[in-house]
Amino acid sequence: MFDETITRLRADGMRTTRYENFIGGRWVEPVDGGYFTDHSPINGRPIVQFAESTARDVELAVDAAWRARGAWGDRSLAERATLLLRIADRIEAHLESLALAETIDNGKPIRETRSADLPLAIDHFRYFAGCIRAEEGAVSVIDSDTVAYHFNEPLGVVGQIIPWNFPLLMAAWKIAPALAAGNCVVIKPAEQTSLTLMMVADLIADILPPGVLNIVTGAGHVVGRAIAENPRVAKIAFTGSTDTGRTIMHYAAEHVIPQTMELGGKSPNIFMADVMDRDDDFLARAIEGFAMFAFNKGEVCTCPSRVLIQDSIFEPFLQKALSQVDRLRVGDPLLPTTQMGPQASSGQLAKVLDYIDIGRRRRCGCAPPPRRQSRSTGYRGTSGPARRSGRRGSVPDWPSRREPADNPPARRRSCCRSASRPSPSSHGPCPRRIARRSRTGWHCPNPPG
Questions:
Q1: Element (H, E) at 430
Q2: Residues 126-172: tens digit of each pLDDT
Q3: According to the model, what pLDDT value does residue 441 have?
Q4: CATH number of the domain encompassing residue 316
Q5: Same structural domain for residues 347 and 363?
Q6: Is 301 a catalytic residue?
Q7: 137, 198, 295, 396: which could join 369 in a potential S-S bond, CB 3.0 to 4.6 Å?
């Protein structure tokens, strides 16, 4: 199936086995001539090569964006909206190929790339095409002789750095609003998952004027730093780890430019005792919520990476939850029945296994992770073939530990302080009380399963 997919992509969308940088509306070889090979997490086989860029390549991209910024910013809102709609239509026309490419490059199941990643990416371009048409300024009357008026203008050149967990969708999140607002973009995709964005650049090269969208591939500490430090970049947007985000903010602060940061966090699911008052649909959805750690292979900032269960229901709830986990289908992500594919890289695999080891050291009651088995059933990077495609019950044992009944989760700073989205589940008012008492910015009471 993998070979068939590669053949199909080369016939529709993946134009080459070596991608240069996309600068000024054309493909430009890296200044130093270096390339790196992108491997599929499905089986470790090489897919394509990308430019191993340096700060000099970023400078070329900024040059192109700088030249294009005036004409693009002066375009009418209607013109920019029309071009965004054309981009959406072009991506939609190649949805299947791009979904397949996202799966072989990232390892996420094809059921997710077909039904979520690609449709949402397309919708973002259409959404912001509509938003910009409705953009308005404001006028305030100060007194009979004074009027204050406010209107929005493009910043000029903006820099964007995206992660590997939602490669094309994250690109759409950043590119669409920036282009709609009249900015020119210099964007760096994650070096592990650059394929789909480069394919899209090829598909839409005839839609956007040269220099409006520029893509530079390479290592984050080289290319990302060069973008954030460039004095002609008027704003930086970054999605990724908290540590890297802090570093990017430091670079951007040198030029006192605005930053948009979406950084990683923890999202504990909190299950209160009354979820088991009745064996009904509410309980079933709560159990489904427990298993949402498998969504996107757990590679998402809102992943329920920890579960807090009220002591009185600990055993029966955990038994039901683990039964739900056992039904997850782990295997070849190109199969439409697979729910959890391989980790995006060997580095991510190592991190997952390390957390399992941490759970064991903290006496969480989990069995040793089946390392050889895990590498062939989805918890793997580029180390071996997926031999048990489609089989069930391959997820390592869930780490679990009881906490004292008088130590409620809302009082445990270590549980919720750094959470990006704690999700309390209860029939009653408990979720709201927990939300008010925990020190986090986002809460999702009774999230859907």
A1: helix 430-437
A2: 999 999 998 888 899 999 999 998 888 999 999 999 999 999 999 99
A3: 58
A4: 3.40.309.10
A5: yes
A6: yes
A7: 396
Residues 287-303 have pLDDT tens digits of: 888 888 888 877 777 77
Q: Which of 20, 191, 301, 415 is catalytic?
A: 301
380-415: b (≥16 Cβ within 10 Å) or e: bbbeeebeebeeeebbbbbbbeeeeeeebbbeeeeb
Tokens of 419: 């959470």
The length of the chain, given as a count of residues: 449
| Confidence at residue 160, expressed as pLDDT on a 0 to 100 scale | 97
How many domains are there within the chain? Answer: 2
Spatial CA neighbour of 161 closest among 101, 69, 226:
226
Known catalytic membership, residue 262: yes
Strands 157-161 and 184-188: parallel
Q: Is the pLDDT of residue 435 over 70?
A: no
Contact partners, residue 440, CB within 8 Å, separation at least 6: 416, 417, 418, 419, 420, 421, 422
Domain boundary among 231, 263, 295: 263
* Cβ proximity of 199 and 170 under 8 Å: no
Q: What is the CATH number of the domain that holds 237?
A: 3.40.605.10
Catalytic residue of the set 262, 288, 366, 403: 262
